[in-house]
Amino acid sequence: MKKSIVLVALLSLMTLGNKVSAQSISGAGATFPEPFYNAAFASYERAAHAKVTYGGIGSGGGIRSLKDKIVDFGASDAFLTNQELREMPAPIVHIPTCSGAVVVAYNLPGVKQIKLTPTVLASIFLGQIRNWNHPALRKLNPGVRFPNKEITVVHRSDGSGTTNMFTDYLTKVNKVWHSKVGAGKTVNWPVGVGAKGNPGVAGAIHQTQGSIGYIGSEYAFAQREPSALIQNKAGKFIKATVASTSAAGKGKIPADTRVMLTNSSAPTAYPIAGFTWLIIYKDQAYNNRSFAQAQATLKLIDWMVSRNAQALAVKTNYAPLPAGVAARAKAILRTVTYKGKRILK
Amino acid sequence: MNSDKILKRVLFFSSLVIVLIAAAMVFSLFEGSLPSISKFGWRFLISDQWDPTQGSENYGALLFIVGTILTSVLALVIAIPLAFCTSLFVAEYFRGTKLASIVGTLVDLLAGIPSIIYGLWGFYILCPLVVEAGLSPQGFGVFTSALILAIMIVPYATSLSNTTIAMVPNDLKEAAYALGATRLEVIRTVILPNARSGMTASYILAFGRAIGETLAVTMLIGNENAIPHGLFSTGNTMASVIANQFGEASGLQLSALIELALLLFVITTIINAIGKYIIKKIG
Amino acid sequence: MDNIINIGKTAGLLSSIGYRKAKNNIFKILVMVFSFLTISMVFLIIGTLLVKGYKQINLAFFTQVAPDTFTAMMATANGEIIPGGIANGILGSIYLVLIASVIAIPMGIVIGVYLSENSKKKYACVIRDIADIMQGVPSIVIGIIAYIWVVVPLTKGYSVLAGGVALAIMMLPLIVRSTEESLKMVPDTLKEAAIALGTPYYKVIWRVLIPTSFSGLISGILLAVSRVLGETAPLMLTTLGNPDVNWNIAKPGSAVPLLIWQFYNDPNMVNLIWSSTIFLMGFVLILNLISKWIGAKRK
User: Fold this and answer.
1) How far apart are CA B20 and CA C145, in angstroms?
2) Which residues form the signal peptide (chain A) (predicted)?
3) Do C281 and B117 make contact, defined as CB atoms within 8 angstroms?
4) What would the mean pLDDT of A205-225 be, rounded to a whole number?
5) Nearest residue of A to residue B245 by CA position?
């Protein structure tokens, strides 16, 4: 008897839950834009009454979830390689939502500001420069008094788009890195300790004097961690800010937006920056999805690249899409179909 | 066909459910591991490569097996004196007193504290202490994880020990006292020989617990894919690498992670079976 | 007799009594110190939580959903207390445990009854062994199982159901064994008397066995619930988390341990970690103690 009461209660709860939510959209993936996405989705829910659930499980997880067709959209900081695109069950499109940067944070008490060239940065992460007292560092930073302290390199232990952006940059600017380590969401690190997620890395840096590591900018800006100025392609030492990150996206980009913005040639650009994308199937009629579901998904993403949502990106420390890229994203969205018919007008 | 028979059948068939679940678990894990098993075979167990780079994917479990064994053995070494003394306190020195039941309850509470809370405590309290002591530059590592693991497994090591110590026949103890033995001598010569196998079994079961512990270790071990070369160096365990990479993995990497889970399943099952076998022998 | 002589020999009764007494006392002090060390951990952990988290606890903390990062960031920047709470996690956890209980408790009790009724059979021993082995399976492995069984084929995505199934698999062996143990405590005379009166077998179980061991069953269930309430690893692979309260069983849901994990991973939410941890810890420990208290009352 009691059991049946519980069952009835449960069933009624479930039906209740279904009645309340008009349209429920689920997505999963990158943790890097999660603060922006959470703020944007919450705001969208308040305005348009479509429920959005987003799980920050990492870019690789986002791609896999879309591949398994268990989400309406995936999110990734790394665009899918041609091979990955071929492995997907159906064609997909990339929609950039904002750009972010990877900052190089360090823990040296009393040292306010350091400058790094691409070569020195790569040497530290290759384990070739092992002490803060190294002549190369002293030469770059004449005013700074470096301690005689071993460098502890901190990197990510989980697969991540942040790692992909950082190693992509090092691969572009350093031959040794290119041949020894390469780029990817997870790589085999020559030195250092791993920590899970941005907070793991930030926490490890925070607790360890003499450490250096890379962190997603959204995190670094919020925590006000000291970060290094990195020399860009134009030879200028640039601090990571919303403006210098946005500047990296102003160059030429391909039609499908699949491009890494690292090592940008724009004179004011911070060199370790990149887009983050939402990925969806080009034809939305899969897994018996209703047209309404497909439409709700597209409307949401269309709103994500609108001016209102982009303003939220700035508020949460991300760089907004340059106007040209936002227009490109809207155009891509209008190629998405349901059983061959266009969804958005 | 009367109601008694029907009921007996129902009971019997429902008991099959648990067999089915267990069999299906093994099957699903095995099925998920197949791509990895067919590609790497036995090399998976002895290779220390864990390379997810596209195009040169190569996976081996050795790093994580070593990391798991190291942290768990160290945890057991730390936990045994704690558990041993606590058991004597509860089941011998203060047997039957209010104090013993309070201590016993508190130790049981240790088993109730969720893994994530141990992890947080280790991350925010223990790591800085390890750094302060100059033992490791960032506080993570085998030692830190093992210390927290040790506390986590003490309850499992004591629960059975308490029973076996309490079960030692009183007349044997009385005889030793009558001969003028001190309490320590009674413990050494009467209680230990009689309770030894039960205590061993409880330590084995506790060891099995340590091997599968996930979140606390993930937060504290440093997640470095390398064989730890010392007490204070970082590493990775089978459970922590699964927690780190499962959400991100796909294809062969996912399969390799599921194979790690299968391995974890097999190892913990063997350890628990040994523990159970010893308990059965005692009766 | 031989035993006693052996004891006399090996106990080293030949060394001086003063030295032996000193050793004895030192050992007793050691035992006290180590026991104290062990239990002090409970106080250390709870103390840490209270000291760090008491500021964040207020009524809103239990009635509002978790804030988004942006809100938390603004509050932190202005030196205010972060608004919002963990209502979505609390309801999500309760929902998960309910689902797990609906699956695991009836099944567990029935299997427990079977084991206690046929305890001598070889087959029952096998079942018992399997239940014990299942208890020892690491929770992360069970998370993977629920991912393979539910997330991919059934709910086509992370879901409350998948988390419920994972927790149910963890609860089942605990309930089977605790049921069996409490049924064993029922005196055989009771059962035999009922059977002698010609009571049908199902009535014997339903009217005699279950009621007399009822408190034992409840205590076992509470303990099982308190064990799965704090599980995080399997939920990371199954329910994922949800910023809102969600009653749809096929969609991702939240849970208190998942929120704690999220706060730990988000720079702006660090201050919410401790209060949610206090809540989880309190919940788990109270269930634990109630279960112990019910169990003790029976004896």
Assistant:
1) 14
2) 1-22
3) yes
4) 83
5) A158
Q: Give the minimum alpha-carbon distance from C40 to chain B in angstroms, rounded to a whole number.
A: 9
Contact state of B138 with A193 under an 8 Å Cβ cutoff? yes
Per residue in A41-67, pLDDT (tens digit) is 988 988 877 888 888 777 888 898 899
Short-list C284, C243, C230, C224, CA closest to C86: C243
B-C Cβ pairs (cutoff 8 Å, strict) = 253
- Collapsing DSSP states into helix, strand and coil, what is residue A283? strand
Residue % of chain B over a pLDDT of 70 = 99
C241, two tokens: 């988390």
Examine the pLDDT at A2 and tell me if it is beyond 60: no
pLDDT band, residue C5 (cuts 50/70/90)? low
Q: How far apart are CA A67 and CA A88, in angstroms?
A: 6
* Partner chains of B (3+ C-beta pairs under 8 Å): A, C
What does the pLDDT average to over A4-26? 51
Asked if B249 lies within 8 A of A60 by C-beta distance, the reply is: yes
C137 and B268 within 8 Å at the Cβ level: the answer is yes
Radius of gyration of chain B (CA): 23
Structure tokens at B226: 């390398």
Rounded CA gap, B64 and B48, in Å?
8
CA atoms in the 13 A half-sphere facing the CB of C44: 16
- DSSP labels, A7-31: HHHHHHHHHHHHHH-SEEEEEEE-S
Q: How many helices and strands (H and E) does chain C possess? A: 15, 0
Would an 8 Å CB–CB cutoff place B276 in contact with chain C? yes
List, in sequence order, every residue forming a beta bridge with A106; answer none if it has no partner: A212
Per-residue pLDDT, C150: 94
Q: What chain C residue is nearest to A45 in terms of C-alpha separation?
A: C244
Q: What is the pLDDT of residue C102?
A: 96
Characterise B55 by phi-psi region: left (phi > 0), alpha (psi -120 to 50), beta (else): left
